[in-house]
Amino acid sequence: MEIIVASVIGVLTAGGIYLILRLRAFPVILGLSLLSYAVNVFIFATGRLKVNAPPILQDHGAAVYTDPLPQALVLTAIVISFGMTAVLVMIALGAFLEADHDRIDITAADTPEAEEKESGE
Amino acid sequence: MNSGGGLLPIIAILPFLGALVPGVMIRAGRTACASFAAIPTLIALVMLATLAPDVMRGEVLQAEISWIPQLGLSASFFLDGLGLLFAGMILGMGLLITLYARFYLSGEDPMGQFYTYLLLFQGAMLGIVISDNILLLLIFWELTSLSSFLLIGYWKHLPEGRQGARMALAVTGGGGLAMIGGMLILGNIAGSYQLTDILEQGEAIRASQWYLPALILILLGAFTKSAQFPFHFWLPHAMAAPTPVSAYLHSATMVKAGVFLMARLWPVLAGTDAWFLIVATTGLITMVLGAVIALFKDDLKALLAFSTVSHLGLMTMLLGFGTRAAAIAAVFHIINHLTFKAALFMTAGIVDHEAHTRDIRRLGGLARLMPFSAVIATITGLSMAGIPLFNGFLSKEMMLHEAAQTRWLDNPWVMPVLATIGALFSVAYSLRFIFHVFGGPPRADYPSRPHDPPFGMYAAPALLALLVVLIGVMPHLAEPLVTIAANAVTGADLHPHLKLWHGVTPALFMSMIAVAGGIVLLVLHKPLDRAWRAAPRPEAKAIFDAVLARLVGAAQGLSAGLHNGAISRYLAIFVATTVALGYAAFSGGGLAASTRPMLPVPPVALVGFVILTLATVLVVANHRARFKALVLIGMIGLTVSGGFVYLSAPDLALTQIAVETVTIMLLLLALHFMPKTTPVESGAALRLRDGAIALAAGGAVAALALAFMTREFSTISDFHLANAYKGGGGHNVVNVILVDFRGYDTYGEIIVLGIAGLTIFALLEALLGGPAARRLRNTDYSANRSRDRHPMMMVVATRAMMPIAIMVGIYIFLRGHNQPGGGFVAGLVISIALLMQYMASGFGWTQERQRVEYHAMIGLGVVVAGLTGIGAWLAGEPFLTSAFGYVHLPPVEEFELATAMLFDLGVFLTVLGGVMLMLYSLSRISRYAGEPINVQPMDFDPSQREPAGTREAE
Q1: pLDDT digits (tens, 9 = 90+) for A112-121
Q2: Residue B894 structural domain
Q3: How is chain A split into domains, by residue range?
């Protein structure tokens, strides 16, 4: 099972990184979503894997519980990463509406000098 | 620890406090401004005077205020003889300069600024000489560099001023950086950053293998500050400053900081061969070189600047000798140089002020026109030349005496001969200053007709000239001060006898040779000057500029190469570097064998793994088709939450599902206004490179995850498991951690989420006010628009679902403390329920029924959570400590009430408000895109009817 979880983290990371290296805003946002899955699972896995041992206290018997701390961290991380994704989406959308393209790299044509030259001509 | 030095921190802070005043007081007039600059200096001087008697008795006064003890940094001050000498010089000269500058600066100069800078500098300089902590000393050291930058560049309109200021900052700041390294090494060897501790460990430091690096680094700092060869070139360029600055910083105080530091650390660093070779040799070269160049300068201030370089070399050389007698001579010369050189600078300033030129070739004959100034210049000039009856003679004799006894690399001739040559040129340029400016008949072609300035302007140099004569004739007056300062430098108990006549010694002959030779040189000045001008010599400024230009070029090349505006490039570099560093760390340390047995793999996990991998590969392969990729992302998210369920994390699974839903909705909303496909832009090579980086990173992360998952570890969670019920009153440990143990973190996180929501709202407001709104109005989205925007089936279904969804939300919220659930999930669930209304019944219809503003909801949530935390204070507990109890109401079963629930309510409200504000903001865009607002829940627009099949054909 550990190998499967590790592979899942690896696959999600690889996919996420490939997508954040793209040149348009939308794939980058998708890549960041994949990366945040990977990071969440990664942090979750630091508590080690246990089956049928949710950290809900049982009244009877010597129950086994998995580590609750990484879960608490990941829970807030999921919500926060949603907030961050939303801000990014908004910025990307704004950039697209202002510039009519959603390229993320600043090219030579976008520098102030080039724009000055353009307006001077 | 306070032993008698309680006033020291106040003295140190006074100039800084005082610096606030003149900048404001300038409106009250120039004299008021100058007076207010003088007041803090005067108070500090009086305080220093009250401490002086103790120091003169040989006591060392100390005061310490602990600052950052973990770093060994404390605001501690001490005052001994050397500190007293320098502090007195700094404050006394500060007063004189304040007076002089009042008359020197013209009405057009911003005088308030000047005095503010001057006091800042004074405070920094004072800090250097009374700091007992070398880290504190370093801070003050850098402050002098910065404040002198401001002062040199005071006349901002002059390019020379700006360039000179920059050069001074580059050179002294660079030296300061080296010195930080040296001081840290020194503190490390000594095991303390307290100067008083370090001074007691001389032998251990000199024996350390780190002695030489520390010495070189510290000397780099000292040499750059004190303008020693080969760093001397900045000082003449700093002469672009107003003359009061030159007189104060570049003759009396700042340039002596390097000398001060060498004197301060003399007991620790001096006495080795390395010290002698580096310091004495540098001093000797600087002394001779400075004197020679000074003779051929036509600018009065440049002449004085190179003379200062030469005299600083002299002091450095004396300290470099490493003998006690030489240290006494150095201390004595520090005093003498201060008196005559500052007066000379001020005289040069007076000449400039009156004649409107400082060019010696255009001057001459001023003695008849400005007799007072001429007398002052003659007295102080002769002192600079080292003529008997003036104080410069005394210390120069002592210097020559020491030089005559010093062998340089076993050669007895090098030192005395070169020292005599230095003295000889010194006589020559001093006499030139006197005779070529004041001697001879008056000329008819001065740029302005000169006459003596008002009393206020020559009062300061006159006072200094008086000191020159007094010390020159009665040297025993200076004896007590020289004694305690020299004792502080050497750490010994010395009793020097300063007297005018030492008998017939080699030094006397050397002096006579110097005077005679100096007169000959002056007579021969014209032909020599022509030869000097014809001779090729390196131009320091050109070299400096070229070096600087090359450095800037290299830096620009590097940053342009790394930082060319392509974010994908930064990310690629970042990921590749991280993987490489991680690999290095991994292969560097030994990895313990894996101990933890792996869990079995049930078939369902395998299925999930295949789905997830397949979906990820498809996302990457299809990311250009944005809609398709989005659907696949949703699939991945759901599979991940399935994994959470299997691996005992029900809370995570719930949250993940809810977040997944809102994320996809958000991206769908955004995609509505964005291009639906991504064009092919990167070539095959680039994609291959990115693929390789991505695979390497994925492999690395997987290996890391597997490595720790197969090893045991010790967790801190046992505490949480044991105390969740006892302390927090809940069975769901994850929820108790969120609302209780780590409640403070959660509080921060909901605030972040709220801010994110507000940011999106604000961004949108700004966006819709700009050109984007025009673009939106002019874009035709009709192809995307459905005829049946709000289908009846969906409206009915969502209406029916609404109360159920809300009930589910409340249920999840209520049970959160003991079962999977809680404020986060509940907030998300209810926002989904509300979103469904927006989607099904339309924006306008839903908006009409909205009672509470989402902004208010965010605020309310944060306030509720905060008040809950503050409530703990009322019970005398720390912030966010929860309390709980059990309540029994007859019809219902006994249930629990905990303050943590109230906190969770705050979380719930913030999450709900934040999420709704985000999505609501995005959907507002559509109003700008010309979409009609519906007030009826179900509207069908037949005019949008289009022939079947057109959409597919596109």
Answers
A1: 665 555 554 4
A2: 717-940
A3: 2-112
